[in-house]
Amino acid sequence: MNYFNLYAISPIDGRYSQDTSKLKNIFSEYAFLKFRTTIEIRWLQKLSSIPEIFKLDKLNQLDNEILNNIIKHFNYDDAKYIKTIEKTTQHDVKAIEYFLKNKISYKLFNHSILNFIHFACTSEDINNLAYANMMQTTRINLLIPYWENIIFNIRNIAFKFQNISMLSRTHGQSASPTTVGKEMSNFYYRMYRQLKQLKKIKIFGKINGATGNYNAHVIAYPMLNWYQISKEFVTSLNIHWNPCTTQIEPHDYISELLSCIIRFNIILINFNQDIWGYIALNYFNQHNNLNEIGSSTMPHKINPIHFEKSEGNLGLSNAIMNHMISKLPISRWQRDLTDSTVLRNLGVAISYSIISYKSLLLGLKKITINYNTIKKDLSNKWELLSEPIQIVMKKHGINNAYEKLKLLTKGKQMNSILIHQYIDSLKIPNQEKIKLKKITPNNYIGNSIKITKNIYNITQ
User: Taking the CB of residue 57, how many other CB atoms lie within 10 A of it?
Assistant: First the structure.
């Protein structure tokens, strides 16, 4: 850990800096400047391709190569230069415009294009498309791969242990048995649904001027179909076009995207808590690394720190995103600036999620199932069979079946002898008695195995 990391205020850039290094190329100030510089250049190239804009000479191959290289070779010195200009302008997007004018003036002989840098644009025309590209990059390069990795690992646990019977707990109390595989499948399917939704969410952008009406565009070139030009430009960036906005793209898609992430994260919190509980019950063992210390005073401990770390960071991420969801779609009249500082924290919210995903995946690598504890815990719960016995009694018309089994089993620990004696005393057909006596806490699992297999089939 270097000097900067040790003195960082946020753990994202300090303690967890290695976990979030990839996000620096998406959400840092440097990355934001590069995204916006890219949008400015692409808009200039788009304008040059329109013959009716006769004051702007058509860019030739060399011109475009020079412009493309500004993007390709954008570096720390470029970003620093923009920030130096901003100290004077006190406006970040205007600083990028001046940076480009200086850069292009130095590199290109054709200076007629300088007047068309940032032509008819408001700052938000550039910013919203930069954020759209950020979110698209995040979804494709980070969220989808991490979610798929988590889902893949949980699915593997489900199918590896699909035949392992396990005691269920409802309200924390013993309940009808399940399988380890089925309980993992519950989470697998929930996460799978959110992944499908994440992939379908449309990311929107706009480029339509100061209040969304193409006012300046129409004054300059009234004969042009700016509506169509705007659509072509936005979609060329692999972004869906928003045809009707104020000065800002209203950020509804960001709320939709963050809502999906929050739902996935809530499922993961639930998963972390359940795994934490199963570790506490000794259903899962954690790998014993003698070099690691679980407690500063209790040498025996192996704490489930990876699942706890994941849960804590998921909570932080969701708290920030919940504020963004309720804040970002709201803007006074045609525009206020309250969204700007909030949007700059998108990387913070996503970072906490990425930290949690990495921690969870590491935790999953360090656990193994404890067959003996699971089997022993379940084999001592013969009272669970009061459910199938009273159901068969009802089937054959025996009144007060539930109440009779409650009297026999509630608050008592049963065994196979007591259960079989009771079955023998029932006035039901012999074949039903034989069927009931074949039931054990271990095999009373309903369709758990079948459900696990079916979930796999329907999600392929």
Answer: 14
CA–CA distance, 127 with 170 (Å, rounded to integer): 50
Whether residue 282 is found in the same domain as residue 416: no
CB count in 10 Å sphere of residue 49: 12
Same domain, 18 and 71: yes
- Is there a domain that residue 230 lies in? yes
* CATH classification at residue 418: 1.10.40.30
DSSP lists the bridge partners of residue 168 as: 175
Percent of the chain exceeding pLDDT 70 equals 98
**Where would I find the beta strands (DSSP E) of 100-203?**
165-170, 173-179
Q: Any catalytic annotation for residue 295?
A: yes
* Last-in-domain residue among 313, 335, 370: 370
Q: Does a structural domain hold residue 301?
A: yes
Domain count, the chain: 3
| Residue 38 is assigned to a structural domain of this protein | yes
Report the distance separating Cα 327 and Cα 343, nearest Å. 10
Q: Are residues 131 and 108 in the same domain?
A: no
pLDDT digits (tens, 9 = 90+) for 224-273: 999 999 999 999 999 999 999 999 999 999 999 999 999 999 999 999 99
Residue 232 falls inside a structural domain: yes
| Catalytic-labelled residue, pool 73, 171, 300, 425 | 171
> Which CATH number belongs to the domain containing residue 138 in this structure?
1.20.200.10
Q: 392 and 337 in one domain?
A: no
User: d(Cα 54, Cα 174) in Å, to the nearest integer?
Assistant: 79
pTM of the model: 0.95
Helix%, strand%, coil% for the chain, nearest 5: 65, 5, 30
Hey, is 204 helix, strand or coil? Answer: strand
| CA nearest neighbour of 428 among 409, 401, 446 | 401
Domain residues for the domain of 429 are 382-440
pLDDT in tens, 279-315: 999 999 988 776 676 665 767 767 899 999 999 999 9
Give me the catalytic one of 21, 236, 295, 326: 295
Per-residue pLDDT tens over the stretch 52-108: 998 888 899 999 999 999 999 999 999 999 999 999 999 999 999 999 999 998 777
Please report, to the nearest 10 degrees, the dihedral formed by the alpha carbons of residues 137, 140, 145, 150 taken in order. Answer: 90
